[in-house]
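User: Could you check the structure of this?
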Amino acid sequence: MAPFWGIGILFSVGLGLSLFGSLFSFVDGAYAAQRFYLCVLLVLFSAIGLASSLNSRSKGLILVWPGVCLLFVCFNLLIHGASSVSPFRWVEPLLYAFFILAVTLGGCWLARLGGLVAQIRLLVAVKVVFLMLYAGMALNYYWFSLLDDGSAHSDILPWGFVNIRYWSHLATWLLPLLPLALIILPYSRNTLWRSMVLVTGGLWVWMLILSSARGAMLSVFLGACLSVVIFRRSSKEWVKCFLLIWCLGVLFWLVLSVTVPSLQGEGVIMRELTWGSSGRGPLWVEAFAMSQQNFPFGMGAQSWLTHEVLSAEYQSAKKFAHPHNMYLMWAAEYGWITVFSFVLLGYLGVKRVIEAKVSFRERVMPSLPVIALAYTASVLGALVHAAFSAVFIAPASLIIAVFVLAYFIAVTWPETPARNIKIAVRLSRPAKAFILILYFLLAGGWLVQVLQYYEAMILDSVMYLDQSKEGFFPRFWYHGGYPRHDSL
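Assistant: Sure, the predicted structure tokens are below.
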């Protein structure tokens, strides 16, 4: 039972820091604190997963194709770190390498731990409590905005984030999981609990509509639709709860952002909704041009920050620390070969979900299909959202992603390993000790460079503010435009 509570504490700290970091006295809205926590979380999850895999008595630990693909991706990331001209060339490649190890090895460890449904119930309950607190404080902000000379509440809601996109990332990950609180928990049929969960979900949908976060709304619905297509009959109860939450969200928007402001003579309150690319077009053109320079290997880690501008569109456009498209950024910096390997991993993941759906029929736990559906919808929604925003850069998003992806892998863990081709590896104790020592040396060196990168960024931020009127553009740190090209 102790590991369960340990996971719950790690998740609680991560979710609390992601949602309520602004309540603490952080200048950057807890961006750096979230990044440091993420780095420690990745190292911890990877270490536990690695130790669990090395000590497991199972003869078939590594699926051939996923294992080979994971090793290739991690090796490719390290190669791009070595070829980069950035003084902190190892920080981001190792971030993604440790992220991949954390969600895969960590997910396998969670599956071996046993009591998977109990683990997920604990995390769902924790998540609902935090979402309730956030929604309650949002209503508080709303009432004060109505009393403050009719100020537009769309300017302050969602609250607590230096950029509205970072909140929308969390909404993309968390909203598809919320119906689980109405289905799998022991008190899911309690009227008071159901009312509280539905109101919480409705308020989150209201804030999502209020934010005009087109990418998040589109991603959540596409992820939900694709998951329903995969699971079909198993999705009935989840779809019912999901649609009910969204209907309540629309109702809240009609009442709180249309009716009440209209009665005050203000009209409909929400952020401006546009149908263009919001300035992303020149960024995507530049990222694609970069991906062609050293095809298919890319220009190296952090080259987006340090390269000579290639396209005329980007030359005259506003500069950002990333192109607002994770796939084009990876293609530009790590090459299309890396993107292809990610696509292959995605294909293997979808294949595993379909195989797991069949195996669920033979298991005695009726909750697993709907849990798998919810986590699949969350993951697919985030993958779609990554085409429009920095879902896999922002630290708050990555903290939640570690838990969602790890449990996604745990839920779809092969129940019958004999059906798959495996590599059986037997290692001696000295070999296992050597692997663990090598891992901790690598992890320790990476954490040291992360700290050095932070210190150098802080020093540069002072000079940057004196020279530039643009403000900060977040990436790894809140001042994400460091290092940068001499002309910027």
